[in-house]
Amino acid sequence: MCDKKDSRPCHHCKSKSASAPADTSKVHYEKFWLYRHCSSLQQRDRQAQKAGQLFSGLLAMNVVFLGSAFISSMIFNKVAITLADVWILLSILKVLCLFWIIYYLLGTSRQPHAVLYRDSHAGAIWIRGSVLLFGSCSILLNVFQIGYSTILVHCKSRVEIVFPSIGILFICTQAYFLWHHSKDCIQVQHNFTRCGLMLTIATNLLLWLLAVTNDTLHIEIESQLREVERRFAGNDTTLCTCPNITICKVFQKGYILLYPFNTEYCLVCCSVLYVMWKNVGRRISHHHIPHTKPKFKLQGVVFGPLLGTSAVIIGACVFMMYQIQATSLVPSRQVFVIYYSYYIVLLPVMSVGAVIGTIIHALEKKELDTLKNPTRSLDVVLLMGAALGQIGMSYFSIVALVATDPRDLLNSLALSYSVLIIFQNITQNVFVIDGLHRRRVGAETEAKDAGDSGQHTVAAELPGEEETTLSSKQGHSQTPPGKEEDTKEEQNGEAYGQRRVSVLELGQEIRKASLSYIHTYSNLSWKRRVLREISFFLVLCNIILWVMPTFGAHPIFENGMERSFYGYSTWFVIVNFGLPLGVFYRMHSVGGLLEIYVTA
């Protein structure tokens, strides 16, 4: 019926009774208007998001260019622009970032409806653990720098103490912020949050650039060591000498050992902050949220852990030999031969495994996961970008070795090492990126079914023993009350029987676990088994290849061949640019390979 208070329903009813096609067109028109209205709102939100991203990106670009100009001016003209000037600029940026992070923690994130969505793919535990690990090492690095500058305060400026002190506060606050809020998809103060994130990214990039290009303290430490030798030789000099040689040596060695961790910390923070920047204002639908997260379980692998563990043990032995020999006054030529030989044997095996894994990915014919995922997109960019560090160093090394004497034994080994590094990085990138884009279909259900069937199989195979155990337990529980007073020998025999039952139970549990593992392994398809073997093997290999350069094994700088070809300063910049990227690449590859292992 029509409402008498409103004329439009009556008119609608009249038009409906008059002609049905007119009513149908009017309904279609209303739906079209609603769709157009919602589309215009979405378009305006998208335009506002693009404008905010553009403005914050321009802010970061200007900050990076300004800081790069300061750092470059310090390198080419140390009189007009000094290192203290660069430190003052970076201290100002750190203080601004600290104010914004504190405001975000205490203000923005605590507003109503501020964090309605959280990106489950962002802030993986391994990358947040890397932030804590590298952040702790960076704090210790700044402590060593403060201690070193405090001892030499009579010939050093106060800025060399203030800058690392602000750095410690900045590292602690930023690590706490990234640990607790790396998954946030903030829904308030979009533009201000984007600008704060980009300012923090720019500050970390400038800190990384300064760490890569600044060799002042390294040269100063070398001159200090030479000064100590002159003092022991009886030659008096006027340089700034350390009053306590032992403490100074501790600070110097600790600073040199922890120096690469600072560059790694800056790169990891930049990657996490970039994902947060992409997630500002993002609304995650239900099909983006995984109902169950895949868990890491050591199932379906036998040969991968064995081969990988062998590579880790041999690599650790080679690393210890290298550290003992290369740190001596006259490094042995043989230790470089052993180091390069280890890589020449390991890298082809890793490359072959990655090629086989890529072929299996092609044979599986899984659908590609096309859902929007900023974390996965960043993983691909980081893998490709971080690999450029080792690839670039390898090409520089190839040119230097070919131009000098490639027929020499050590030069030929270094040349083979450089070529294999390039090939291994490319093949591993293809394998990891292809695996990250594969859609995971029914893997958890299959694994669960396999585990359940394995348990049933084990239970079926061990009925007699379980009944024996139960009957023995029932026999002990149903002891008559009249036999409570037994002799000492009977008590000892009973205790022996209980120990025997416990040993039998332990043996049964071990046997159950072994049979369940074997059944799970045999229940997987051969493609999944091979993928798990390869990914686990590559995980262990990348771990040892991360440990060796991180803790001081740098033959590409210490053998002296490329350094004599390019010069100390040029090769120092090349190595400091490529080495942190190479270490970051190994660490980031471990995360991608673990994801392939879990989802295989």
Explain the overall architecture.
GO terms for molecular function: proton channel activity. Belongs to the otopetrin family. Keywords: Cell membrane, Hydrogen ion transport, Ion channel, Ion transport, Membrane, Transmembrane, Transmembrane helix, Transport. It is found in: Cell membrane. The protein has 19 helices and 2 strands. It is an all-alpha fold and 600 residues long. The protein folds into 2 domains: 32-289, no CATH class; 300-441 and 531-600, no CATH class. A two-stranded antiparallel ribbon has the order 1-2. Helix 6 (190-213) packs across helix 19 and helix 8 packs across helix 19 (568-599). The longest helix is centred in the N-terminal third of the chain and has 57 residues, at 20-76. The chain is globular and about 60 Å long. It starts with 6 loop residues before the first helix and ends with a helix. The model is unreliable at 1-31 and 441-479 (pLDDT under 50).
